[in-house]
Amino acid sequence: MSVLDPTPDHSLDPTSDRSLGAQLADLIRAQIKSGSRWPGSKLPSESQFHERYGVSRTTVRDTLKVLAGEGLIETRKGYGSFVRERRRVRRIVRGHDHSGHVKSGKPIFDTLVEASGQRPGRRMLSVGRVPLPVDVREHLDLPTDVNEIAIRKRLQLIDDEPMVISTSYYPLWYSAGTRLEQQEAIPQGPDALIEELGHVFGSVREIHSVRMPDPDEQRLLAIKAGGVPLFRIIRIDYSTTGKPMVLSDDLYRGDCFEFVVEDTTVR
Questions:
Q1: What is the crossing angle of helices 20-34 and 57-69, to 10°?
Q2: Do 176 and 104 fall within a single domain?
Q3: Which domain holds residue 76?
Q4: What are the backbone angles phi and psi of residue 205, rounded to the nearest 5°?
Q5: What are the start-end ranges of the H helices in the chain?
């Protein structure tokens, strides 16, 4: 079968109540999802689509924009359109994520990515004290007279590609004057440092949601216009006494991660 038409017996119906552009999008979408057009493979040119299906180049162009908006394909200037490659990292959602990174001596993100056979990295975006956001105050149960909090905001990379915007908030009652407020990297990860300061993690609460990125987030994550939602995880870590310790606000590229919830509770 040719690259133009990897599945036999597919044509467009001009008598259908669906437009030719919608039918062409359905066809390409089905080919991608079935695997007959595989990740990284090049799509036919506008001229080839025109010759094969009798649709105008404008219709082809609009159809490809729709598929790009869905995150199924990407267009590389001067090279054509390609099926997007989706390298997924699996994030296991469980109550105690800290044991793995304590054993490895590395941050949780690094441990997760290396377990998938890929190379982690990061770029610090902001470190220091900021005005305390209202929702962070509520999640961390901080008094009304507390007006500042320490943050570490970084862009997490996988094989040099930006994948996650991570912002962590650390109350000043234990973070003031520590390395958590300093620009330098913390090789063992902030959570390990917090434990070195004498605080033991006990339980965790996560709040999951999905939204589209704003322009700054698109820029940081190198997301082209449309097509890639962000998976947001707000995570509050508590001490063994139930005191809120850290709030993490992580924005994951929705096309690069899958999340698995494990419950090891035996009943």
A1: 50
A2: yes
A3: 20-83
A4: -130, 135
A5: 20-34, 46-53, 57-69, 98-104, 108-115, 134-140, 172-175, 190-196, 215-220
Q: How many residues does the chain have?
A: 267
Res. 99 pLDDT band, cuts 50 70 90? low
Q: What is the CATH number of the domain that holds 49?
A: 1.10.10.10
pTM of the model: 0.72
> What are 102's two structure tokens?
């304590």
Q: Is 17 helix (H, G, I), strand (E, B) or coil?
A: coil
The pair of structure tokens assigned to 137 is 């105050």
Tokens representing 171 are 């109350």
Token pair 């999951």 in the structure block, residue: 208
pLDDT, tens digit (0-9, with 9 covering 90-100), for 153-184: 999 998 888 999 999 999 999 999 999 999 98
- Six token digits for residue 23: 């039918």
pLDDT tens per residue, range 235-245: 999 999 999 99
- Concatenating the DSSP letter of every residue in 30-44 gives HHHHHTSS-TTPBPP
The answer to whether residues 21 and 55 touch, using CB atoms and an 8 Å cutoff, is yes
Q: What is the DSSP-derived secondary structure letter of residue 199?
A: -
Q: Is 214 helix (H, G, I), strand (E, B) or coil?
A: coil
Do 99 and 156 fall within a single domain?
yes
Q: What is the pLDDT of residues 2-61, one digit of tens each?
A: 455 555 446 799 899 999 999 999 999 999 988 899 988 999 999 999 999 999 999 999
